Amino acid sequence: MALSTELQRLIDVSAPLWAGEAEVVRTYWTSPVRTMETDLLWIRRQCSKEFNGSGIGEYKNMGVFMGPLMELQEVFPNIDTGGPNSISRHYVLDLIETLKDEYEHFCLFSDAYDRIKPDDVPSMNPHELATWDEDVALTSLRHGHIAEHGKLGIRASRFTEGGYCTLFREGMRAKDIGGEFALANGLIASACTTIFEDEFGHMLEGIAGLDSEGWSAGEFKLMEELVVDQLQHRVRMRNAEFSFPLTEERVQDIFAGKIEPEPFDYAAAEARLHAHAAE
Protein backbone atom coordinates (compact mmCIF):
# COMPACT_ATOMS: atom_id res chain seq x y z
CA MET A 1 0.00 0.00 0.00
CA ALA A 2 2.59 2.51 -1.19
CA LEU A 3 1.98 6.26 -1.15
CA SER A 4 1.34 7.87 -4.52
CA THR A 5 3.94 9.96 -6.32
CA GLU A 6 1.73 13.03 -5.84
CA LEU A 7 1.46 12.51 -2.09
CA GLN A 8 5.18 11.92 -1.78
CA ARG A 9 5.74 15.20 -3.64
CA LEU A 10 3.39 16.96 -1.21
CA ILE A 11 5.38 15.56 1.71
CA ASP A 12 8.66 16.62 0.08
CA VAL A 13 7.61 20.27 -0.30
CA SER A 14 6.23 20.29 3.26
CA ALA A 15 9.24 18.76 5.00
CA PRO A 16 11.47 21.91 4.94
CA LEU A 17 8.63 23.98 6.40
CA TRP A 18 7.91 21.38 9.08
CA ALA A 19 11.61 21.60 9.90
CA GLY A 20 11.33 25.40 10.05
CA GLU A 21 8.53 25.24 12.59
CA ALA A 22 10.55 22.74 14.63
CA GLU A 23 13.55 25.07 14.50
CA VAL A 24 11.48 27.88 16.00
CA VAL A 25 10.63 25.81 19.06
CA ARG A 26 14.04 24.17 19.39
CA THR A 27 15.80 27.55 19.15
CA TYR A 28 13.52 29.10 21.74
CA TRP A 29 14.50 26.72 24.55
CA THR A 30 18.00 28.20 24.78
CA SER A 31 17.38 31.58 23.13
CA PRO A 32 18.18 34.88 24.90
CA VAL A 33 14.58 35.95 24.20
CA ARG A 34 13.34 33.33 26.69
CA THR A 35 12.16 34.55 30.08
CA MET A 36 9.53 33.52 32.58
CA GLU A 37 7.20 36.03 30.91
CA THR A 38 7.72 34.61 27.42
CA ASP A 39 7.15 31.07 28.74
CA LEU A 40 3.85 32.14 30.25
CA LEU A 41 2.95 34.01 27.07
CA TRP A 42 3.49 31.09 24.67
CA ILE A 43 1.67 28.65 26.94
CA ARG A 44 -1.30 31.04 27.15
CA ARG A 45 -1.27 31.35 23.38
CA GLN A 46 -1.10 27.58 22.95
CA CYS A 47 -3.98 27.16 25.38
CA SER A 48 -5.93 29.63 23.25
CA LYS A 49 -5.35 27.37 20.24
CA GLU A 50 -6.34 24.26 22.20
CA PHE A 51 -9.49 25.86 23.65
CA ASN A 52 -10.68 28.28 20.97
CA GLY A 53 -8.65 27.33 17.90
CA SER A 54 -10.42 27.17 14.56
CA GLY A 55 -9.10 26.77 11.07
CA ILE A 56 -9.61 23.24 9.77
CA GLY A 57 -13.32 23.18 9.08
CA GLU A 58 -14.69 22.33 12.48
CA TYR A 59 -18.46 22.52 12.78
CA LYS A 60 -19.54 25.98 11.51
CA ASN A 61 -15.99 27.22 12.27
CA MET A 62 -16.88 27.28 15.95
CA GLY A 63 -13.55 25.91 17.08
CA VAL A 64 -12.03 22.74 18.45
CA PHE A 65 -14.14 22.76 21.63
CA MET A 66 -17.43 24.44 20.84
CA GLY A 67 -17.61 22.99 17.31
CA PRO A 68 -17.87 19.33 18.35
CA LEU A 69 -20.00 20.27 21.35
CA MET A 70 -22.61 22.07 19.25
CA GLU A 71 -22.53 19.39 16.55
CA LEU A 72 -23.16 16.70 19.16
CA GLN A 73 -26.19 18.60 20.40
CA GLU A 74 -27.59 18.98 16.89
CA VAL A 75 -27.00 15.39 15.69
CA PHE A 76 -28.26 13.74 18.89
CA PRO A 77 -31.87 13.22 17.67
CA ASN A 78 -30.60 11.54 14.48
CA ILE A 79 -28.26 8.90 15.91
CA ASP A 80 -28.94 5.59 14.09
CA THR A 81 -32.50 6.53 13.16
CA GLY A 82 -32.20 4.82 9.77
CA GLY A 83 -33.75 7.80 7.97
CA PRO A 84 -32.20 10.14 5.40
CA ASN A 85 -30.69 12.27 8.17
CA SER A 86 -29.43 9.33 10.22
CA ILE A 87 -26.03 9.82 11.91
CA SER A 88 -23.81 6.83 12.65
CA ARG A 89 -23.14 6.07 16.28
CA HIS A 90 -19.46 5.71 15.37
CA TYR A 91 -19.36 9.19 13.87
CA VAL A 92 -20.74 10.49 17.17
CA LEU A 93 -18.16 8.48 19.09
CA ASP A 94 -15.41 10.09 17.00
CA LEU A 95 -16.80 13.53 17.84
CA ILE A 96 -16.80 12.72 21.54
CA GLU A 97 -13.24 11.41 21.39
CA THR A 98 -12.10 14.51 19.50
CA LEU A 99 -13.70 16.78 22.09
CA LYS A 100 -12.13 14.83 24.94
CA ASP A 101 -8.66 14.86 23.38
CA GLU A 102 -8.64 18.57 22.57
CA TYR A 103 -9.90 19.53 26.01
CA GLU A 104 -7.32 17.28 27.66
CA HIS A 105 -4.58 19.05 25.71
CA PHE A 106 -5.83 22.39 26.99
CA CYS A 107 -5.80 20.99 30.54
CA LEU A 108 -2.25 19.65 30.21
CA PHE A 109 -0.82 22.99 29.13
CA SER A 110 -2.94 24.85 31.69
CA ASP A 111 -1.68 22.61 34.49
CA ALA A 112 1.91 23.25 33.40
CA TYR A 113 1.21 26.99 33.33
CA ASP A 114 -0.21 26.96 36.87
CA ARG A 115 2.84 25.08 38.14
CA ILE A 116 5.29 27.44 36.44
CA LYS A 117 3.69 30.83 37.13
CA PRO A 118 4.69 33.04 40.07
CA ASP A 119 2.23 33.22 42.95
CA ASP A 120 1.12 36.73 42.02
CA VAL A 121 0.06 35.67 38.50
CA PRO A 122 -3.58 34.47 38.18
CA SER A 123 -4.24 30.86 37.26
CA MET A 124 -5.19 29.94 33.69
CA ASN A 125 -8.62 31.27 32.73
CA PRO A 126 -9.66 30.07 29.25
CA HIS A 127 -12.21 32.84 28.89
CA GLU A 128 -9.48 35.48 29.10
CA LEU A 129 -7.20 33.93 26.49
CA ALA A 130 -6.34 35.96 23.40
CA THR A 131 -5.02 35.08 19.99
CA TRP A 132 -2.26 36.99 18.17
CA ASP A 133 -1.91 38.61 14.77
CA GLU A 134 0.00 35.79 13.06
CA ASP A 135 -2.44 33.17 14.31
CA VAL A 136 -5.37 35.28 13.11
CA ALA A 137 -3.69 35.49 9.69
CA LEU A 138 -3.25 31.70 9.56
CA THR A 139 -6.87 31.07 10.52
CA SER A 140 -8.09 33.62 7.99
CA LEU A 141 -6.00 31.98 5.27
CA ARG A 142 -7.40 28.54 6.06
CA HIS A 143 -10.97 29.78 6.14
CA GLY A 144 -10.38 31.48 2.79
CA HIS A 145 -9.00 28.29 1.28
CA ILE A 146 -11.97 26.33 2.58
CA ALA A 147 -14.47 28.89 1.30
CA GLU A 148 -12.85 29.00 -2.16
CA HIS A 149 -11.90 25.36 -2.65
CA GLY A 150 -14.39 23.43 -0.52
CA LYS A 151 -13.39 19.86 0.31
CA LEU A 152 -9.92 20.32 -1.17
CA GLY A 153 -9.39 23.37 1.03
CA ILE A 154 -10.46 21.39 4.10
CA ARG A 155 -8.10 18.55 3.20
CA ALA A 156 -5.20 20.95 2.68
CA SER A 157 -5.91 22.51 6.07
CA ARG A 158 -6.07 19.12 7.76
CA PHE A 159 -2.78 18.18 6.11
CA THR A 160 -1.07 21.23 7.65
CA GLU A 161 -2.79 21.08 11.05
CA GLY A 162 -0.24 20.53 13.79
CA GLY A 163 2.74 21.09 11.50
CA TYR A 164 3.66 17.38 11.63
CA CYS A 165 3.49 17.57 15.46
CA THR A 166 6.69 19.63 15.54
CA LEU A 167 5.78 21.62 18.67
CA PHE A 168 5.04 18.47 20.63
CA ARG A 169 8.11 16.62 19.33
CA GLU A 170 10.44 19.48 20.23
CA GLY A 171 8.57 19.99 23.49
CA MET A 172 9.27 16.39 24.51
CA ARG A 173 12.99 17.01 23.95
CA ALA A 174 12.99 20.00 26.31
CA LYS A 175 13.30 17.65 29.29
CA ASP A 176 16.99 17.20 28.48
CA ILE A 177 17.72 20.91 28.85
CA GLY A 178 18.72 21.96 32.37
CA GLY A 179 19.53 25.41 33.72
CA GLU A 180 17.18 27.99 35.13
CA PHE A 181 14.17 26.67 33.18
CA ALA A 182 14.59 23.03 34.24
CA LEU A 183 11.22 22.90 36.05
CA ALA A 184 9.37 24.46 33.15
CA ASN A 185 11.16 22.21 30.67
CA GLY A 186 10.14 19.09 32.57
CA LEU A 187 6.49 20.13 32.82
CA ILE A 188 6.35 21.17 29.17
CA ALA A 189 7.97 17.90 28.09
CA SER A 190 5.48 15.87 30.10
CA ALA A 191 2.49 17.65 28.56
CA CYS A 192 3.92 17.43 25.05
CA THR A 193 4.65 13.71 25.40
CA THR A 194 1.02 12.91 26.17
CA ILE A 195 -0.26 15.16 23.39
CA PHE A 196 2.22 13.77 20.86
CA GLU A 197 1.03 10.24 21.55
CA ASP A 198 -2.56 11.37 20.95
CA GLU A 199 -1.86 13.36 17.82
CA PHE A 200 0.84 11.57 15.86
CA GLY A 201 -1.22 8.61 14.71
CA HIS A 202 -4.22 10.75 13.79
CA MET A 203 -1.94 13.12 11.91
CA LEU A 204 -0.36 10.29 9.92
CA GLU A 205 -3.77 8.92 9.00
CA GLY A 206 -4.82 12.37 7.82
CA ILE A 207 -1.75 12.74 5.64
CA ALA A 208 -1.67 9.21 4.24
CA GLY A 209 -5.44 9.20 3.82
CA LEU A 210 -5.16 11.75 1.02
CA ASP A 211 -4.51 8.93 -1.42
CA SER A 212 -7.95 7.49 -0.76
CA GLU A 213 -9.70 10.69 -1.86
CA GLY A 214 -9.17 10.20 -5.60
CA TRP A 215 -7.64 13.61 -6.27
CA SER A 216 -6.44 14.34 -9.81
CA ALA A 217 -2.90 15.48 -10.60
CA GLY A 218 -4.22 19.02 -11.04
CA GLU A 219 -5.98 18.93 -7.68
CA PHE A 220 -2.80 17.68 -6.00
CA LYS A 221 -0.91 20.57 -7.61
CA LEU A 222 -3.41 23.07 -6.22
CA MET A 223 -3.26 21.37 -2.83
CA GLU A 224 0.52 21.70 -2.91
CA GLU A 225 0.17 25.47 -3.39
CA LEU A 226 -2.35 25.74 -0.54
CA VAL A 227 -0.22 23.59 1.77
CA VAL A 228 2.96 25.60 1.17
CA ASP A 229 1.08 28.86 1.79
CA GLN A 230 -0.40 27.53 5.03
CA LEU A 231 2.86 26.04 6.28
CA GLN A 232 4.71 29.30 5.68
CA HIS A 233 2.04 31.05 7.71
CA ARG A 234 2.52 28.38 10.39
CA VAL A 235 6.24 29.20 10.67
CA ARG A 236 5.39 32.87 11.16
CA MET A 237 2.62 31.99 13.61
CA ARG A 238 4.93 29.81 15.69
CA ASN A 239 7.81 32.31 15.62
CA ALA A 240 5.51 35.01 16.98
CA GLU A 241 4.01 32.64 19.55
CA PHE A 242 7.51 32.07 20.95
CA SER A 243 8.52 35.76 20.93
CA PHE A 244 10.54 35.62 17.69
CA PRO A 245 13.56 33.42 18.43
CA LEU A 246 14.26 33.37 14.67
CA THR A 247 15.20 36.48 12.72
CA GLU A 248 13.29 37.49 9.62
CA GLU A 249 16.40 36.67 7.60
CA ARG A 250 16.35 33.11 8.94
CA VAL A 251 12.62 32.79 8.21
CA GLN A 252 13.24 33.82 4.61
CA ASP A 253 16.08 31.27 4.37
CA ILE A 254 13.69 28.57 5.56
CA PHE A 255 11.13 29.61 2.95
CA ALA A 256 13.90 29.36 0.34
CA GLY A 257 14.63 25.78 1.42
CA LYS A 258 17.91 26.49 3.20
CA ILE A 259 17.22 23.94 5.91
CA GLU A 260 17.48 20.19 6.39
CA PRO A 261 13.97 18.79 5.78
CA GLU A 262 12.06 17.12 8.61
CA PRO A 263 12.20 13.34 7.97
CA PHE A 264 8.80 11.80 7.29
CA ASP A 265 8.07 8.46 8.95
CA TYR A 266 6.94 6.47 5.92
CA ALA A 267 6.98 3.18 7.85
CA ALA A 268 4.58 4.52 10.46
CA ALA A 269 2.32 5.94 7.75
CA GLU A 270 2.21 2.58 5.97
CA ALA A 271 1.39 0.83 9.24
CA ARG A 272 -1.45 3.25 9.89
CA LEU A 273 -2.85 2.69 6.42
CA HIS A 274 -2.76 -1.09 6.85
CA ALA A 275 -4.40 -0.85 10.26
CA HIS A 276 -7.12 1.43 8.92
CA ALA A 277 -7.77 -0.88 5.96
CA ALA A 278 -8.14 -3.85 8.31
CA GLU A 279 -10.84 -2.18 10.42
Structure summarized in a few sentences:
With 279 residues, the chain is mostly helical. The protein has eleven helices and no strands.
Task: Write the SSE topology.
Elements: H1 5-29, H2 36-52, H3 66-75, H4 89-116, H5 133-149, H6 151-160, H7 166-173, H8 182-208, H9 217-241, H10 248-255, H11 266-278
Helix pairs in contact: 1-7, 1-9, 2-4, 3-4, 4-8, 5-6, 5-9, 6-9, 7-8, 8-11
Uncertain regions spanning at least 5 consecutive residues = none
Largest sheet: none
**Whole-number average pLDDT?**
90
Oligomer: single chain
| DSSP strand content | under 5%
* Distance separating the two termini: 15 Å
How many DSSP-defined strands? 0
CA-based shape = globular
Order of helices and strands: HHHHHHHHHHH
Secondary structure category: mainly alpha
**Helical content (DSSP H or I, runs of 4+):** 55-70%
The DSSP helix count reads 11
Cα-atom radius of gyration:
19 Å
Keywords:
279 residues; 11 helices; mainly alpha; single chain
Q: Would you kindly provide a written description of the structure presented here, covering whatever features stand out?
A:
It is a single chain. With 279 residues, the protein is an all-alpha fold. Helices cover 67% and strands 0% of the residues. It contains eleven helices and no strands. The chain has helices spanning 5-29, 36-52, 66-75, 89-116, 133-149, 151-160, 166-173, 182-208, 217-241, 248-255, 266-278. Helix 7 (166-173) runs antiparallel to helix 8. It is globular. The two termini are 15 Å apart. The model has no long low-confidence stretch (mean pLDDT 90).
